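Appendix B. Raw example, untouched.
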Amino acid sequence: MFKLRTLLLAVGLSVSSLSFALTEAEKKAVSAALEGTKLEKHRLYDHRWNFRKINTQFNDDTFRVSGHFRHYKRWAHDDRVTFTVVMKNGKIDEDKSDIDIDEAIDWRVIAWDVIKFVINLISGNDDEVDSEGDISKDTLDAFIDSIDRIAEVDAGDSWQEQSQKVVLLLAKSAFLQESTVSAFRDRSQEGRKQLFAKGRYNSHELNVVGNNKISSLKIGKGVQVKVCDRTNAAGTCRTYRGDKVNLPANLDNKVSSVTVEKRKVVSRPQCTNGRTKSESCAPLNGVKNYRCENGRWKLVSGGCGFMIPPLSF
């Protein structure tokens, strides 16, 4: 195993620099990695890959994506690529991001060693066999060419170099999905779509999906969105922290401002303020009395204890 510090991760990355246009091959790879759909022998960037679900995690303004995929080989163990990409405020933290490539054995080298061993065994010769001696160069070239086809060794960029492109593709796509909001013109997240990063957008900035045209929303795990029927987040508004496949009638095709911000953790109240309740301490003695304050039960009186039987003389 050896470690590569990818040059692609050294460049700054912001939402504005991310391209949303993907090829069909890229879309399939991203879908498999983000949604957990098994995808094998998938050709991307001149090589074939096996994809599995990757992991994403938000912590304040830090986004972390990690996982692995494999470089497919038909008659050999697959090469394994393990990666971690950490983004801080939308830019890659290269000190905390890396790629580990576990390269499988080169079967061409082993095949040639086997051929030499067999020739030596048959001939009883312990000397090294030269590729242009006992075995003809044409035969060797044909053998290596067949191994190349079996292992699907492609011309062009090496699979190690292209694996770095795959890592960046998955990291960018995961960041887009988890830290942005997609607004759709039609219900059920269909139709024309516009992507929104953190910030406030008024009617003139809804230029892709259209002002008063939004009908559904897809919301990343790290953000929440506030949609209103007037500009500057005024008028009738609703805040959503999860996907909304159909907006309510008072906002459907009426949205004129969109505000995306970091998702806030909202704890649900345990109770309604002012309510009271009592709990028995059985099998112990006593009763606990509670009152609801600020959505939480607070012990106001009573308690539990052991009853000491009276002494008899």
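End of appendix B.
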